[in-house]
Design brief:
coiled coil; TPR-like_helical_dom_sf; mainly alpha; TPR repeat; TPR_rpt; STI1 domain-containing protein; 17 helices
Length: about 350
């Protein structure tokens, strides 16, 4: 993701653009696929500190024309990425459809090959649609692996699913079945018990759980092993849930940054269209040192519904991207940390438009 420093540099560079350049940049950014922008920002997240520093230095020396060229290149790249994404996604969907047909005919081995190819294809795609399709193929693959007696492979496949979706009933139940087939009964009971907790009204799950529970109740040495397996799997679920929440939070931050960049471009265009109104707003902020702090506190305390209503009713917000809670949080942080020098710079930029 963009660091705060990179976001600040990008905003300063956009402020140097002419109205025509801003309008062109808005069109470019509006045409970029959100999924593709997220994929690009995901790649940026993995940049080393040296790479980030070099990127900041490069952005700091870019002219308005350079920014326009970079945006144009990003738009072209986004178009190519979307075309590639759609090609891979559609091919993977076809593989899944073929796999489903083979399952219907009882040919689970060949179906496994179809699902495996689809899963491998989808590994590099970051869109929600690709993630959903991948999970579906993984669950179908786990079913085939159960049918063909590949229990260790089934356990591995289901574990991969549970890292992404710790509450998946199918993954939990099928992994329990695979453990049972393999003879790992404490682990099997731990999974079947959790599956029963996830779906207490599912008669098939309940029957499997109670049958194995009764079987193990006759083994005096099994109780300690069962407790150990339950504790281990509970820890795994907790870790997976925390990792998933962290991933979702990073995604929300990415979406907020993308939307903020679009909002910055739209706002900058409005500055060009009505510099007198913006100059008046800057003067009012400068005359009230507590205004930024008050605005920051207000944004922090607002509910998503209040934020949405404010964005819709605020003068001059027409045509602006929707203000999300994540964007409001980011704006609140920026406002809170804005120095008098930053405010003066904003006034100078507005006055020079």
């Amino acid at each position: 993701m963009f660091s705060p420093e990179m976001m600040k540099i990008a905003q300063e560079q956009m402020s140097k653009m002419s109205p025509d350049q801003m309008a062109a940049m808005q069109r470019q950014m509006a045409g970029m696929s959100p999924d593709m922008m997220q994929q690009a920002m995901s790649q940026m997240k993995n940049m080393s500190p040296d790479d980030v520093k070099q990127a900041q230095e490069k952005m700091n020396t870019m002219s308005a024309d350079d920014m326009m060229k970079a945006t144009q290149q990003a738009g072209d790249t986004s178009t190519r990425m979307k075309q590639q994404h759609d090609y891979v996604y559609n091919a993977s969907m076809k593989l899944k459809t073929d796999g489903n047909y083979l399952v219907g005919t009882g040919n689970h081995k060949e179906a496994s090959e179809k699902y495996t190819r689809a899963i491998n294809n989808l590994k590099e795609l970051t869109s929600d649609a690709a993630a959903t399709l991948k999970l579906s193929c993984q669950m179908n693959l786990a079913l085939c692996q159960l049918k063909t007696g590949e229990n260790s492979a089934c356990i591995s496949t289901c574990t991969d699913v549970l890292k992404v979706d710790p509450t998946s009933l199918k993954a939990t139940y099928r992994r329990g079945q695979a453990y049972q087939n393999k003879g790992s009964l404490p682990e099997a009971l731990a999974d079947l018990k959790h599956a029963h907790e996830l779906a207490p009204d599912d008669e098939t799950v309940e029957a499997s759980y109670k049958s194995l529970k009764e079987q193990l109740s006759k083994d005096a040495d099994a109780e300690a092993k069962i407790k150990e397996a339950e504790a281990r799997m509970e820890a795994e679920r907790k870790a997976a849930a925390e990792a998933r929440e962290k991933e979702l939070e990073e995604k929300r931050q990415m979406e907020a940054q993308i939307a903020q960049m679009k909002m910055q471009a739209a706002a900058q265009q409005k500055v060009s269209d009505n510099p007198e109104a913006m100059q008046k707003a800057m003067d009012e902020l400068a005359s009230n040192p507590d205004a930024l702090k008050n605005m920051s506190e207000m944004l922090k305390g607002m509910s998503p519904e209040q934020i949405s209503a404010m964005a819709k009713n605020a003068p001059g917000m027409e045509g602006m991207p929707e203000l999300t809670p994540e964007m409001a949080k980011m704006m609140a942080s920026q406002l809170e940390n804005m120095s008098p020098e930053d405010l003066a710079k904003m006034k100078d930029i507005t006055a020079n438009k």
